[in-house]
Design a protein that fits this description.
single chain, Aspartate Aminotransferase, domain 2, 4-stranded antiparallel β-sheet
């Protein structure tokens, strides 16, 4: 059909799992949703709504990079994590998704490409295509626990590569970046003139301690242009308030040029609401309470999952160190979709690994957000179907 951009011509056909789910819901049948990713629906602590009722909520004095008070609040919050950054190097956006769109505009001409991890959550394909940017996936080898293999990154780059995207920790794989991996990646980026985009929305949610773990690239001295992304959606469990932040780092000349250009991009959209910016210091003050509750929830649910697995089971829980998800490796037969459909018939909704571009086997992805009693109630059906 003429008259529409090819950038928006995404497939819209429902797969068998989506059709079966719609039919089950139309019949009104009970369902335990182990794909839930919305923290506001998971019974976790929410801030006082009155925090948004600031005295100047209806004023409008836009600053392209975000209100100074809001950027200082982010810098202060990062400081509580031992990260020293300047508010001058922060840019606010309505979400990390919007930040990606701005960075693709900043770094890429139409037809250029960005190197992205696989497996990973299926957002980048849409964001990149809408900006006329191509993606070149690099594999996260299962043999490495889905950790970064810099050789895979280097092998996928070409003359039109402009940036490497790292998700730290991986979603849904839960692997954190480590110092050796970052050093090797920095060498490749410096040699090839690539920027590093580091998605750190889940970095607060580590389940354990690991030596040489990289919590964030913000505030680091690195030889390439770096962008560290996070926001209220995950940090404080408030996706509806629409505020993310990007820290820009790297060599000073490149950093300052990037900041100047991003300021013009941000000024074009002025997308972040005034009330949420004014309330940001108080909202970030709520973050530790939310994070503590979420981590306790995730650890309890993962513990239930591991304990429910029979010793002789043909499936396993993939090792991980952070995030909100669990990944199961299951037999290749009957495979991901057939297993998801059987689980749905048993009243449990999970996601197949192909949603996230897993390869080298069959996988399922489960959310660890549901209340423990809800999560635990689904495990009987899960074990029963996987034993079949």
């Amino acid at each position: 059909m003429s008259g529409f951009s090819s950038r928006t011509d995404f497939p819209r056909e429902w797969n068998p799992l989506a059709r079966a789910l719609a039919e089950r819901r139309a019949r009104g049948e009970a369902l335990v949703d182990l794909t839930e990713s919305n923290p506001t629906r998971a019974g976790l602590p929410l801030p006082d709504p009155g925090l948004l009722a600031t005295s100047e909520a209806f004023t409008y004095a836009p600053e392209p990079t975000g209100l100074r008070s809001a950027r200082e609040a982010v810098a202060s919050y990062l400081g509580t994590r031992g990260v020293a950054v300047s508010a001058e190097h922060l840019i606010l956006s309505a979400s990390t998704s919007e930040a990606y769109a701005w960075l693709f505009k900043l770094l890429c001409e139409p037809g250029d490409n960005v190197l992205v991890p696989a497996p990973c959550y299926p957002l980048f394909e849409y964001l990149a295509r809408l900006e006329g940017v191509e993606l070149r996936p690099y594999r996260l080898p299962h043999a490495h626990g889905f950790g970064l293999d810099v050789g895979e990154v280097a092998a996928e780059g070409d003359a039109r590569s402009r940036a490497v995207l790292v998700v730290n920790p991986g979603n849904p794989t839960g692997h954190f970046l480590h110092e050796g991996e970052l050093a090797a990646l920095a060498a490749v980026c410096e040699e090839r003139g690539l920027a590093l985009i580091c998605d750190e929305v889940f970095s607060e949610f580590s389940w354990d301690e690991e030596p040489d773990r990289v919590a964030t690239v913000a505030g680091r001295t690195l030889p390439m242009l770096t962008f560290s992304l996070s926001g209220l959606s995950k940090v404080a469990g408030m996706p509806g308030l629409k505020l993310g932040w990007t820290h820009v780092g790297g060599p000073s000349a490149a950093r300052d040029e990037a900041l100047g250009r991003l300021e013009l991009v941000a000024d074009t959209f002025l997308s972040v609401g005034t009330p949420v910016q004014q309330a940001l210091p108080a909202l970030l003050g709520h973050a530790p309470r939310f994070q503590a509750a979420l981590l306790a929830r995730v650890k309890e649910n993962r513990g239930q999952l591991v304990a429910a697995r029979p010793e002789s089971a043909s499936w396993s829980v993939v090792p991980a160190h952070g995030g909100w998800c669990a990944v199961l490796r299951i037999p290749r037969e009957p495979g991901e979709e057939a297993t998801c459909l059987a689980l749905l018939e048993a009243g449990v909704l999970v996601q197949p690994g192909y949603f996230y571009d897993f390869a080298g086997g069959a996988f399922l992805v489960l959310s660890l957000l549901p209340p423990p009693e809800v999560f635990g109630a689904a495990l009987g059906a899960l074990v029963r179907v996987l034993a079949g």
